Each structure stands twice: as C-alpha cells, then as structure tokens.
Protein 1
Amino acid sequence: SAATETEAWQKRLVGAENRVGEMKTRLAEGEAEIERLSAMPDALAKQRDALADTLQTAETVRQQAADDLRRAETELAAAETAQREADTTLATSREQLVRAEGTRDFATETRRVVEEQISDKLDCSPDGLASIADIEDATSLPEVTVLEDRVHRLIRERDTIGPVNLRAETEMEEVAARIESIEAEQEDLVAAIEKLRAAISRLNRQGREQLLNSFAAVNNHFKDLFKVLFGGGTAELQLTESADPLEAGLEILAQPPGKRLQSLSLLSGGEQALTALAIIFAVFLTNPAPICVLDEVDAPLDDTNVARFCDLLRDIAGKTDTRFMVITHHRMTMARMDRLFGVTMEQRGISKLVSVDLQTAERIRDAAVA
C-alpha cells in the first residue's frame, strides 16, 4: 500500500510538473502577446498621423479643385457674355454693312445719273465743270485723290465688316412663316383652352344642379325616415364651410323626441346608429339598387328600435323591389326575414351551410294548425 501511495504521489508530481510546464508556456505566450500589444499603440499612432497627413493633402487638393472650378465657371460666364456681345456686335455690323452698301450703290447710281446729265446738258466731263463754271480756285474743291482715298477707306471698312448675308431675305421669310405658324398654333391653343374652360364651367354647373337636387331629395327622405325610426323628432342635413356645393362639407343635425337639436356626434350610440340608418336609406331611396347588404347594423339597437328597423326595411323592400341581405345576430331581426342562411359546425373543423325559408315554414305551420 505504501508503494501504491508512492506511485500515486509520483503520478501527481508528474502531472503537476506537466501543468507547471504548461503554465510556463502560457506565461511565455502571454508575455509575447503583451509585448506585441504594447507595440500596437505606436503603430496605430503612426497610421493615424499618416491618415491625418493624407486627409490634409486630400482636403488641400479638394479646396484647390473647388477654386479651379469656381474660376472655370467665372471664365465660362465671362466667355458666354463675350460671345453674346460679339453676336450683338456682328448683327449691328451686318446692319451697318447693308446700310453702307445701300449708300454706296445709291451714290454710284447718283454719280452715273449726274455724269449723264452733265454729258447731255453740258457736253463735257465732270472734270471740265470748273472751267465751264469759271471757277479759278480749283483747290477749294475736293481733289480726286481725296475722294479716291475715301472710296478706298469705305471699301476697306466694307471688307472689314464681312460678306453680305445673301440669305437674309430668305431667312426673314422663313422666320416670318414660323412666327405665323406659331401664332396660328397659339390661337388654336387659346380656343381649345376657352372650350375646356367652358366645358368645365358647364360640368361644374350641371354638377352643382345635380348635387343640389340629389341633396334636396336625400334630405327630404332623411327627415321622413328619421321620424319613422325615432317615432317622432326632427332632423336635417346642411351644407357647410363653403357657398359652392361642390366644395361644401356636410353636417347632420338631429333632434330625437324629448331632446334638443344637436349634431350627430353628441347623440348616444343607439341614436347615432338609427340616424346613420336613416341617412343610408335616404340615399338608397334617392337612387335604389337591385341589392343591398347590411352588416350588423342592428347590433347597437334595443328591441323596440329593431322592430322599427325591420318595419322600415320591409316597407322599403316593397317600394323599391330591392333584395336586402342582412347580416345579424339579433333574434328579432332573424324572425322578420323571409329566408335565413346560417353556418354551423356539427363536427370540429367542418362548417355547414344551413338555409331556412321562413315563409314556407309559416305556410307549413299554418296548414298543420288548420
């Protein structure tokens, strides 16, 4: 047993030495990791400084690019202004050229006519006029060289102005035709706009008339139906907030028996339901439909009001030949219907539709009683 215990202690010693070796290894790794991590702040600081320098350089480049862009935009604006001024100057120069050529042609033609008149009437050249007119001081007259210089100067000015636009008349005719076409299109558009405005005005007028007529009919039906459902009282519909019926709002005023006239929001839940039914049936009577679906409209009503609702429903069905489909859980409403449709679940997860013809059931019951 002592040998066994010694062997056990030796195993424990070996295990402890192994753990000590592992701990030393982990300690060395930890120290290496600490050394590696301690060097990271310096590297990160260097990277941060490098990034800051790069950012500053990029900001400088961006600012320079922005300055260049502003200068380029300024130069572009100046160039566009200069171009417009040059175009204006060119147009003015062309007009001046046309006038100068007209003056030259007129002067040439005038000179030719004068020379012909001098030759016909005086039988001499223009140079001989001085002797014929007994003009001794010929220096007081403009010399030919001066006139020639003036002519040459005018020619140079003409050449500087540039060639004559021979298509000016054609271009003017094209522009005039285009202006005429645009004016015709404008007249057509103005006429079309006037037609549209007239049509809109006519539609608005017809819409107002139809709305007022329908509103009056609905209001009259609403007053009558309100008295039927409440057993008295008064009610009316009013257009509010605008003199134009197409833009006006709708206010519902109701006065149940024994209460003062007030808006719909101040009524109780049952009174609001009856008033809403009166409005729905008023609209329905104004423009009846072949079928009408009512979904649990009798839910907030008591038995007395349910009876009035059923009486009114049967009366409207008789007047309009409309088929009413009423979704309800109220026993009195079910009892007043001609046919019942229900959904049952005799087995879990399996629905079954059940239909009962109450009129047929009543006839069978009456026959059985008789």
Protein 2
Amino acid sequence: SRLRDLYQLRGVIYLFEDTMPFIAGQIARTARAYLSQLLPPFFKALLTYTGRASYSWHSPGHGGGVAFRKSPVGRAFHDFFGENTLRSDLSVSVPGLGSLLDHNGPIAEAEANTARTFGADHSFYVINGTSTSNKIIWHAFVTRDDVVLVDRNCHKSILHAIIMTGAIPVYLTGSRNDYGIIGPISLESFSPDNLRQRLAEHPLLQGREARIKLAVLTNSTYDGLCYNAELIKDELEDAADILHFDEAWYGYAAFHEFYAGRHGMGKKRGFDRARHPLVFATQSPHKVLAALSQASIILAENSVEQQLDVERFNESFMMHTSTSPHYGIIASIDVATGMMAGEPGRSLVQETLDEALSFRLAMQQTAERLDEEQWWFDVWEPEQALDNEELLASDWTLDNNAPWHGFGEMADDYALLDPIKVTLLTPGVEEQGRLGRTGIPAAVVTRFLAERGLVVEKTGLYSFLILFSLGITKGKWSTLVSELQEFKRLYDNNAPLDLTLPAIARSGHYPGLGLQDLCHQLHRFYRQQNMVKVLRQIYTELPDIVVRPADAYQQMVRGQVEMVPAEQLAGRISSVMLVPYPPGIPVIMPGERFPEDSSAITDYLRIALAQDQQFPGFESDIHGLRPIVQEDGSVRYFVDCLVE
C-alpha cells in the first residue's frame, strides 16, 4: 500500500525554499490538474457550459429556470430543484455538448469511455430506461417471422419487443423451488440437439427451416442467480446470430473479480472471442449504481465473424430516442462510469458486498442467540457461504442437487448466487413444498416493514428479497434487522393489528385479530388451496401458442376481441399478457390458448380472486386482468380474448 501511495505523489514542497505565492501557485496548479482529469467528458463539458452563464435563445422554454420564477408554483419548483439543475437543462441546439442521436462531441467521448470501462467494444446511452434499450436491440436485428429464443423469466419489455417485431418466440423456462424462487435455465436447454428439437416441435414453425435470429437471457435473475455467460456463448455459437443479456440489475458485475465470466461483457477487449455470436448487454445504472432514473446503457461485444455496423444500428437507436434528451440523465451515466473506473469501482462493489455479507452474518448470529424452539427468518444461501473470511465464488455456486437451492440437477460452475441480492425465508414451508401447520406469509412481514418505511424489492409467498446497492449503509440494514426482531416480538405476543398493522386494522375487515391470528388465517388459506404446487405449475407448464403475439395484438387494436369472464377462459386465446406480480413473469402471452380443461392457470386465477375477497390489503396484482364493478357492487374479472 505504501508503493500505491507513492504513485499518488505529484510533488514535494519544502516551506522555506520558495516564496509563499509560488508554493500556493504550485498547489493550485496541481489541484486544477486533478480536477481536470477527475470529471468525465460529458459532465465536464456540461459543467463548463453551464458555468459560463450564457443567455438562452433556444428550447427548453423555461430558459434556464427563469420562467419558473414568474409564478408562485413555478418558484416552488425552482427552489426545490435548484439553479444548477435548471440551468443545465439544455437543448440539442448547444453544439458544444454533442448529439446523443449522432453520437458526436462530448457525448461520443463519454460513450467511448463507458465502453472501455465496462469492457465492451461499443456503448450507447439510452435516456428512457432499459425497457427502451431492449427494444432498440430487437428493432435493429429482428423482423417479422424471425425466430427468437426467449427466457420466459424476462422483463415485459422483451415481450413487447416480440410483439413490435412480429417475431416467433421459442420459450425456455427455468426450474422453481418450493419457495417460488425462479431457478436458472439449464445449460442443457441451450444444447444444439435440444434447440433443434424445440424448433421442430414448435406449432408455428412446421414445414420450414428455422434458425434462431436472437437469443435473450435475464442475467442475473431477479433473485440473484448469475449465469456462466461464457458457457452459454459456447453453446449458442452455431445456433444464434445475436445473444442478448438483459442485465438491468447487474451493472456492477464488470468491476469485481467475484463475477468474472458471469456477465455479457466478460471477455476483455481484444480477446479472441472464437465464434461466439455478436453479444449485447443492457444495463440500468440507476438501479444498482449511482445514476438518475431512466439511465440505461447498451453494451456490445463484437465476435470474430460479426462486427456491429454502428450506422445501421443507429437507425433503430434514433427510432426509440427523443430528439430532446435530458442532459442530466446523460451526465449521470457519464458520472456513474467515472465512479466505477479502475480501483475505485472495485472498492465500491467490495463495500456493497461487505455490507450484504455483514447483514447475512447478523441474521445468522441472531438465529444462534435464540433458543432452538424459537423461530427466526432463514437466509437463502449455501450452507458454507459465510465460513470463509475470503469471498470465493466457489462458495456461492449452485452445486448439483444441493438441498439449499432446491433446483435439482445443475451443471458444474454454471450458476452462482449473488451475495448482494439477499432472500429471506419465513416459516411455513416444509420438505417437498408442503405447508406446515402454522406459517408466516411473507406478505404480512413486508406489509409490516412498509408501514415502518422499509420497502423491500420483491415479496413471494414465504420469501422476500432485499437488494443491496451502492447506497445501502450499515445504518439501513441494522434498522432492518431491528424491525425484523420487533416483528418477531409482536408476532410471538399476538399483538393486536391496530398496533402492528394500523392501516390494515383501519379497514375494519379484521376485527379483534392479532398479528399471529392474521398470519395463521392467510397461511391456512394458502395451505387449503395448495398454493405452492399451483404456483410451481403455472410457470413450468406453458400454454400452447396458436398465433404470433404480434397478430394477437393487432386483432386487439382492431377491436376483434371480447372480454371473457375469468371463470370462462378455458379454450380461449388471450390477446393480452397475464402477468402476476411478483414475480412479473407472464402466465400467458398474446396468442396463447388457455387450456381446455382445469389447469394451473385457471386454478391460480380462482385462488387469487378468492384471496382478494377474503384478505383485503393483501390483494393479488395481475396485469391484464380487468376488474369490472357489477350493478350489485360485486367485482368480476375479465380477460381480453380473440374473437373466434
């Protein structure tokens, strides 16, 4: 470390060898040089231009914030956001800042710097989120009737891209454990033999030679499972033209050796990529790094046989990009890049890992202090994960048939659990997914936390996800541990709901109940409905695809659909996505047919509607399901289906 400190020296001053003005000048010059190289290119240009106090004769119309000061409500807006925010809200009419659409000037420098920093050959700044980044890639390469290989556990923007391009999807599904955590798609699923079989059996591909134009995979999964990206590239090198990793929640992976080889840009620039496909990764710096909301980047890695044609790709980029981009969002991506470059970036990721590991250890130590017969929240992680003082990727990999993960067979070194994404398990689930006599549904715990200002990332039946990021501190996670301990105390004492869940109690639906009573009632409901089994089936037994998703959507636009009651969906073709949240994975897509007989999908809808009626405050959230209030005040649920 002394040698590293020596490298930081820029000069030596002896106080009495020169005059004070000269020494002050030396210090000022060194400070200016440091600040000059500190700021990344676009942010530096924006800062410089804003500091010149130039009059604005171009859009935006507020003229650097002046217009807001002419109204009381506008003045409140101005005071809240501040002078610099509004002065730096500029227009493409300022040539010195470059163009996002043409990728020139300081914006081009910033994008090139991001590509270098993230280990990519190209990068593109996107100002309206990774949903748009995904659509840009698809519109650049996928056309009607092209075959696409799709991770069913994907973001809905991918499903929108399927509709927009008219592609024919071939879906791959992962396993699901007893807690409802989605596992990785098996490596075997990407094998040439399996893909040939899937294409041959697809109902919309009969009688034609089909090749996969683009394959998309969510990495890491919502629950923090990271693929060995290089193994997947090897499997797909002869099977797909384009490989797209949706890494919206994984933007830090390039900056720490723990994730080496487990992200889309895993190979260093200039490394021989063999015959891998052209690879894209889409990331959301605002989710896990330090950037403003909607900040997104597209990263591209050339292959030996396929180089990205930037000019052609930019046609799709311009199709989806505003001609009035927000410079603050652009600057935040540039700054996020600057923060992550070099050793400081690794240190930031290491700090985040350290906080997550400390939280995991605190949860473990809390359990050890309790008597054996007392309950506590389990942490979903390998048994040996916290045994080593050194963080080793091998301690976090999913071994074949390891009981802790519950996904069964697993290829060697294929998937890894990200320590930063922490899943807590609540009591209630026993071996083979059976629900015990008593249990604590996770929705009650997270509702308790939310009423105390702690909002978690995702809630399952008996699990909830805590997402660590650069902004998480010891104070934040220590408060979470304290609130979980408080929940346990209140639960054990069956404290009344007006003390534990006052918002729920005010609804008047649970008179006289305590916290333990409510948990037991909801748990009993899940047990009677065999909810664990139903949820497993709806995500592993896919419905039949009858028409292209794009064709089903077009029929909806033309009005060739009708609302079908939820209890009468058997045999009908959906024109919409039906997506339960969580986990946000569609149980049916446009163009897919609801099974003729009783199925897991119809069972799930029936159970969800019953839960809405019996447990107000814990309603299900299913996008695509339309509630309609009837004349008698009751609510019926409908799904738009094709007219046949």
